[in-house]
Structure to design on (832 residues):
């Protein structure tokens, strides 16, 4: 079966799709009976030269895609919500199946996209929007359907994982690691969306929608980036048997969902701990299947193209997933985890006694306590707590910070 | 849509399916629109009590399934090829979609099953046959379709992985680790199928069929088990930065396929190295998507049931994968990898000179050489080679073993 597709965007991922079809299109046609042919490519600037791309296919008018009735599906690899949303709506309403890598669009406008898809009787596929080539969307909408999903926990931003891996392996500071990531093309000139956790938050919204059927909005996600992490905390994590990762965490609660993106200390034995460099890894907790992990390339031209083309084959064969039905999520801020609390304290008798009293008062139980160095005017004093309520920690930390012989250096959540 | 299913076998996995549907059947009906109802359960002994299983459904006559026209699909969780093959053929020919966890049947009789499926215009699904809940089949037949798969490498037998993990962590000998595995139910009373690599070989045949479209027969797989591994080699692996795992390895060559199951030393940094205990992990190399790993529970009642029920939902929705088309595989025995060679040698001058001459003569390049202990009559002398041809190693090792001042203790392949 010949399938004519429209392509929106012809940057890294868009050209990746063109190259992938040139490379493996024949194999796909033979094995899966689906001959994918690019009919039109919509771009901002028609005149920019693009290697391996037939200029005759390139247009800057959306209408050229919409009005071409031979085009049954559109692959969007442009990104952004403006004009991303209006393009998607127009295509879907025109009955064109839509395949997108656009996590921001999905996270912010999922309802509108679903509505447009219903109007046009079209399907919406978005495997490439989370973790690139790693088929986590397919796993949640396919293989794990017999399960009640209890949690998703993932390294879903390659940029920050690369930066943290550099800091961890080479003791590099945050700024130097970011510069290296920018040099290698893993981080953008303005790295905010990655390092402050926005990108991961978009992806977490998508994962929560699929895993829990709960519509978590971007603003509902507790979000902290990695820009304030110190080399010292990364080193201390090591000493204590942990690694620091920026995780997206979603957990199902009775009547609510926990959704947060922030740096987390995880034990070195956690399968996510060995996901290094620009790789992505997602750990899923399912009631029947147990814990499952997926690991692979979370970005890049061909990995992302692979995810989008696999969606296209599915759509062509009538195997696309149904539109996701979800209910508004009650996002729960009252959650519990372990906490690493680094303080700077006077090395005098009675400090531990005073601080531990405050922890006890707020119901926080201490798992370990380490003092680094001795005899100087102030020394690092580090606490790791047992599982505690976030609210209790906030209160205890605020009270400790009032004491004149101790100050709070950093607080990092710990997941066992 | 209500779907009535027949179940063959009601042991661990069969009852797992019954329990899973009782637990999550309503959720599946609501979310995926597929109401799975067990119509009949075929067992060997009707009178055996089975917890949670309605005795009215139980039968010992295959005809009761075949003749019930309301049954559109059959889930087989019985295992074995006799009567597994005839049951499967009868169901498929009767037009009943067949979903099986039976790796031995798939590996030995895939062609016959395909033929019966074509006759009956039915589908054949087998996600549960490899790595339990880990959706590696779905990944190869779905998400990775845009790719040329270059390699599969996996820990696909939980029993041996548990035994090796015990030996590795606690310095336990093979026999004690096996006894522990038997005590915990991870190994059977007769552990041959697992520890000698037959089970992994069956699964590798299935993976090669999907990944390369090449029909590898069980007898074509180079197969070695773990029963001859010594605690010393496991300890030495550790010292050298490796872990020993029983791997199934399939690689695509020009015009051929490499298919082998044997103990392998892999670097501790390999993502498979951290797959411990009874878990399974499969690493797939794909030309566009890059390296991907899946990790999870490779066996057990509910994990296996989850895989089978997910197949059932797919079948009900008309989303089952097509029958696999394959060509006979030319299985290549001329492959290359690294080698760990432990010898026992006289601690006298000239030994290294003599041995290294033999390696050089056969084109084998040495990466490292370690002598353990000193001054005794004979000491362990260990070589790790660079990537070498298996045939060259065989010749070099045979020649070295002829020398009177050195004998070969063990040879273990190394994959970087």
């Amino acid at each position: 079966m010949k399938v004519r597709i429209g392509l929106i965007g012809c940057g890294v991922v868009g050209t990746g799709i063109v190259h992938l079809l040139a490379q493996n299109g024949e194999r796909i046609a033979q094995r899966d009976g689906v001959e994918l042919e690019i009919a039109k490519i919509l771009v901002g600037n028609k005149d920019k030269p693009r290697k391996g791309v037939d200029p005759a296919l390139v247009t800057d008018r959306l209408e050229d895609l919409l009005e071409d009735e031979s085009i049954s599906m559109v692959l969007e690899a442009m990104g952004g919500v403006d004009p991303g949303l209006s393009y998607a709506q127009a295509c879907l309403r025109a009955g064109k199946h839509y395949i997108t890598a656009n996590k921001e669009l999905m996270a912010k406008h999922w309802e509108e996209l679903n509505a447009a898809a219903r109007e046009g009787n079209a399907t919406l596929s978005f495997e490439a929007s989370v973790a690139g080539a790693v088929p986590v969307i397919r796993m949640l909408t396919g293989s794990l359907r017999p399960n009640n999903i209890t949690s998703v926990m993932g390294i879903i931003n390659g940029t920050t994982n690369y930066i943290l891996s550099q800091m961890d392996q080479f003791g590099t500071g945050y700024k130097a690691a970011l510069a290296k990531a920018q040099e290698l093309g893993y981080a953008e000139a303005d790295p905010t969306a990655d390092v402050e956790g926005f990108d991961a938050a978009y992806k977490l919204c998508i994962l929560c929608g699929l895993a829990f059927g709960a519509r978590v909005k971007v603003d509902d996600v507790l979000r902290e980036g990695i820009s304030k992490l110190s080399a010292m905390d990364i080193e201390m994590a090591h000493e204590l048997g942990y690694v620091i990762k920026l995780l997206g965490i979603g957990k199902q609660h009775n009547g609510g969902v926990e959704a947060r993106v922030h740096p987390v200390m995880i034990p070195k034995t956690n399968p996510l701990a060995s996901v290094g460099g620009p790789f992505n890894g997602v750990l899923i907790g399912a009631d029947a299947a147990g814990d499952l992990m997926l690991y692979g390339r979370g970005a890049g031209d061909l990995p992302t193209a692979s995810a989008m083309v696999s969606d296209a084959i599915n759509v062509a064969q009538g195997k696309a997933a149904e539109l996701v039905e979800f209910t508004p999520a009650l996002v729960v801020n009252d959650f519990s985890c372990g906490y690493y609390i680094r303080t700077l304290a006077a090395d005098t008798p009675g400090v531990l006694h005073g601080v531990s009293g405050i922890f006890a008062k707020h119901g926080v139980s201490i798992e370990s306590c380490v003092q680094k160095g001795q005899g100087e005017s102030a020394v690092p004093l580090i606490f790791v707590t047992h599982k505690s309520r976030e609210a209790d920690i906030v209160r205890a930390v605020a009270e400790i910070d009032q004491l004149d012989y101790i100050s709070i250096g950093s607080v990092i959540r710990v997941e066992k």
